[in-house]
Amino acid sequence: MITELEMGKAESELELGLGLSLGGGTASKIGKSGGVGGSGAWGERGRLLTAKDFPSVGSKRAADSASHAGASPPRSSSQVVGWPPIGSHRMNSLVNNQAAKSAREEEEAGKKKVKDDETKDVTKKANGKVQVGFIKVNMDGVAIGRKVDLNAHSSYENLAQTLEDMFFRNNPGTIGLTGQFTKPLRLLDGSSEFVLTYEDKEGDWMLVGDVPWRMFITSVKRLRVMKTSEANGLAARHQEPNERQRNQPV
Amino acid sequence: MNYFPDEVIEHIFDSIASHRDRNSISLVCKSWHKIERCSRKKVFIGNCYAIDPERLIGRFPCLKSLTLKGKPHFADFNLVPHEWGGFVHPWIDALARARVGLEELRLKRMVVSDESLELLSRSFANFKSLVLVSCEGFTTDGLASIAANCRHLRELDLQENEIDDHRGQWLNCFPDSCITLTSLNFACLKGETNLAALERLVARSPNLKSLKVNRAVPLDALTRLMSCAPQLVDLGVGSYENEPDPESFAKLSAAINKCTSLRCLSGFSEVAPRCLPAFYPICQNLISLNLSYAAEIQGNHLIKFIQFCKRLQRLWILDSIGDKGLEVVASACKELQELRVFPSDLHGEEDNDAAVTEVGLVAISAGCRKLHSILYFCKQMTNAALITVAKNCPNFIRFRLCILEPNKPDHITSQSLDEGFGAIVQACKGLRRLSVSGLLTDKVFLYIGMYAEQLEMLSIAFAGDTDQGMLYVLNGCKKLRKLEIRDSPFGNAALLADVEKYETMRSLWMSSCDVTLGGCKRLARDAPWLNVEIINENESNGMEQNEEDEREKVDRLYLYRTVVGTRKDAPSCVTIL
C-alpha cells in the first residue's frame, strides 16, 4: 500500500546514502510508514524523516512552502506521488522497457567497473533513469499480496527491512502473525521462521541473497516470503557461510 | 395509463438498449417501472458500493449482463491502497444463490479472487462473457476454472490486470468441445504460454474474431495462429526480440495477407522494428491501432507505418512519434476520432526533441476534423495553441491534457492556461469529460462552471487558488457526476457549500487538498446518504490519531452516494465517518 507511494518516486535518489561508505553523510531519508528502518548501520546517520521535511517532494501542501518562498525550481514530474497520471500497468511496462534498455546499453559498454565506480554508477542511475519497478510480494498465510519498488532499494538489508515492516508491523491483515514478533525478523540469514525467496527470469525459485544485488534486481520477477520449513527444496542453493561471504551483495 | 398490453410495451422497451434511457423509462409510472425492471437484461453499476447485490437481484430478476466498477479512478495511479475494497465475491455469491441466469460479467478496478472465478464458472450454465479491466487478486488458476467449466464461453477479455501467472496450463483447460470462442485477450499475462494449446484452441474456434496474445508468443507461433484464423478482425501481437530471418518474415507476410478482415492491431511490446513492415499490406484496412506499448519502435518507423493507415479512427501511440509524426497523422488519417499520446520517457532530463508539444496537438486538430476524444501527454503547452484547437475541433466529447510538469505555465507568455482551457469548454458544447493541467487559477473553473454544461467528469491536479474555484464547478456544472481533485487548495468551505449536490453525483475524490477532518465529519453528519471515507496514510493510524485533531487536514477523501449505508468490508486504513 503505502510502501509504493513512499518508497517509489521520491526516494530513489536519496536511498543510496544508506549502508554504503559514501561521503557527504546524507541522512537516511525515509517515508512515513513501512519505510526503511533507521536501525543498524544507519542508525547514527539520521532520524526518521518524513515527506514534510522535504518541500520538494510529495504533495503540494508540502511544496507550497517552497513555492511561496519565491523562485522554486520546477518539480520534475517523476518526483510527485502518483504523477504523471499513467496507469500502473502501463507505468510498469514503461519502466521495464527503460530498465531493459539501460541494461542493454550497459552490457554493450561492457566495462568492468571497480566497486566505487559501481556505486557511483548506481547512484547516477537512480538519480537519472529508472524510477519505478514494482514487483509482487506474497507471503505464506497472507491472502493479499503486496508490491514493492525494487529501484527504491539499494541492498538486500534495505529490502528485507521494508518487507518486514510491510508484513509484520501493525498489519491486521496478516493472519495470526500480528504482534508475535518483537525483534527484527532477519529474513536473510535463515534464523527465523520465514525466508525470503524469489522467482527469476527462468522461472526458478531461489533464496534471496545469493547473487550480487544488481544482478538480483535485473533477474527477479517476484518475491515470496516462505516458511522456512517449506524452503527445503531450495536448500541446495543455500551456500556455505564462507561462500556467502564471497558473494556478499555490493 | 397503458393503451397497450404489457407484452407490447415490453417489446417496445426491448429496442431500448441504453441504460440511461431505461432508467428514465422506469421513472414514468409504476406500470412502466414494473415492465421495465422485469425485462431488463443489462445493468450497469458505476460504483459497487452504491447498491448491494440483494437489491439488484430483487429489482432485476431477469438480469443477464452485469457491469461493476470498484475502486475510484485514482487507484490507477497508486493513490488507493490495494486492500481498499471492491471485492466481487459477494456479488457472484448472491447471484449464484438467487440462480440468476448470468451470461456476462464486466468488471473494472475490482478485486477478483480465484475462488470467485471458480464460483462464477460453476454457477451459471449459460455464462458467455467475462471482461476484466484493471482488476487484481487472481491467478491463472482462476482462468483455468473459467476455461474448464464455462461450456459456452465466447469472450474472455483481460485488459491491464495484475494477474499472478502460475504458468500452469490454463489454456489446456479449455475442453476440446469448446468451439464457441469469439474473443480471447490475455495480453497482460506475464508468464509463458502453452503455444501448442493455444494453437489447438484457435484452430477449433472458427468464430474467433479477436485474439490478443501476450509477450510469450513468438513470431513463428503468431504466424501459425494467423494462418489458422484468417477471419480475425482484431489482433494483439506478442513480442519478437530478434529480427526475423527472411523465411520467417515471408511466412508472416503470407499469413497477414490472408487476414483480409483485420481492422484492429495492438501489442508490439519488445518488437524488432523490422517486423512492422510485414503488416504494411493491411494498413489501409485498419480502423484501430494501438502502438502505445511499442517502446522499441522509433518515431520514423511509426511514421512510415501510420502514413498508410488512411482509414484509422482510433490511434494510441507513444510520444516518440514526435510533432513531425503527428503532422503526418494529421495529413494521412482524416477519419481519426480518438487519439491518445502517452509519454515514453518520464524524466525530462534528456531533452527529448522527439517528444510532442503544442505544435503536434494543433496539427492534429487542423487535420483531423472528426476528432472527438483526446488524451495528450506533453511537456509544454500554450494558450494560443489551445484556442486554435478549440476553433478547429468544436466536437470534442473527451479532452484530457496532461502537461507533465505540475503548474507549468504557457511556455511562451508565462501566463496561466486559464484562457486556453476556457476556449475549449466554450467551443466544445458537447464536452463530457475534461482533465486539466499546467498552471491554472480559479479563473479556469469560472469558465468551466459557466460553459461546460454537459460535463460529467472533471479531473483536477495542482490547480486553483481558493475555494471559489471548486465552487464555480459545483455550482455551474449541472451534469457533473464524477469530480476528482488532487493537490489543490480547496477546503471545507467548498466541500460543505452545497451538500445536496453530491446526491446528484456518483462520487467526489479529494487528495492532498485543504479539507479537514472536522469538515468531513460535518459533511457526513449533514448527508447521511453519503459514505464519506477517509483514507489514511498509515494503516495503523485507524481512528486514534484522527480523533485528536479535527483541524488536521485529510490526506485522501472519497465520498459517494449510496442507498445501502456504510460498507462492512473497509480495511483499517479507511475510516468511514
Describe this entry's structure for a reader:
The complex is a heterodimer of chains A (250) and B (577). A five-stranded mixed β-sheet of chain A has the order 2-1-5-3-4. The longest helix of chain A is centred in the middle third of the chain and has 22 residues, at 88-109. Chain A has helices spanning 2-7, 12-15, 60-68, 88-109, 115-128, 156-168, 213-219, 241-246; strands at 134-139, 146-149, 194-200, 205-207, 220-227. Helices cover 32% and strands 11% of the residues of chain A. Chain A is of the alpha+beta class. By secondary structure, chain B is an alpha/beta fold. Chain B folds into three domains: 1-40, Up-down Bundle (Monooxygenase); 42-501, Ribonuclease Inhibitor (Leucine-rich repeat, LRR (right-handed beta-alpha superhelix), Alpha-Beta Horseshoe), CATH 3.80.10; 502-576, no CATH class. The chains are: A alpha+beta (250), B alpha/beta (577). The interface between A and B is large, with 48 and 60 residues. Chain B: This is F-box domain-containing protein. Chain B: Residues 61-107 form the Transport inhibitor response domain.
Cα-atom radius of gyration of chain A: 18 Å
> What's the tally of helices of chain A?
8
For the sheet with most strands of chain B, the description reads: 21 strands, mixed
**Number of domain units of chain B:** 3
Rounded average pLDDT of chain B: 92
Topology:
The complex is a heterodimer of chains A (250) and B (577).
Chain A: H1 2-7, H2 12-15, H3 60-68, H4 88-109, H5 115-128, E1 134-139, E2 146-149, H6 156-168, E3 194-200, E4 205-207, H7 213-219, E5 220-227, H8 241-246
Parallel strand pairs in A: 1-5
Antiparallel strand pairs in A: 1-2, 3-4, 3-5
Chain B: H1 6-14, H2 19-25, H3 30-39, E1 42-45, H4 53-59, E2 65-69, H5 89-97, E3 104-108, H6 114-123, E4 129-133, E5 136-139, H7 140-149, E6 155-159, E7 162-164, E8 183-185, H8 195-203, E9 210-212, H9 219-228, E10 234-237, H10 246-258, E11 264-267, E12 288-290, H11 299-306, E13 314-318, H12 322-332, E14 338-342, H13 358-367, E15 373-378, H14 383-392, E16 398-403, H15 418-427, E17 433-435, H16 442-451, E18 457-461, H17 467-476, E19 482-486, H18 492-496, E20 507-511, H19 517-526, E21 530-535, H20 544-548, E22 556-561, E23 574-576
Parallel strand pairs in B: 1-2, 2-3, 3-4, 4-6, 5-7, 6-8, 8-9, 9-10, 10-11, 11-12, 12-13, 13-14, 14-15, 15-16, 16-17, 17-18, 18-19, 19-20
Antiparallel strand pairs in B: 20-22, 21-22, 21-23
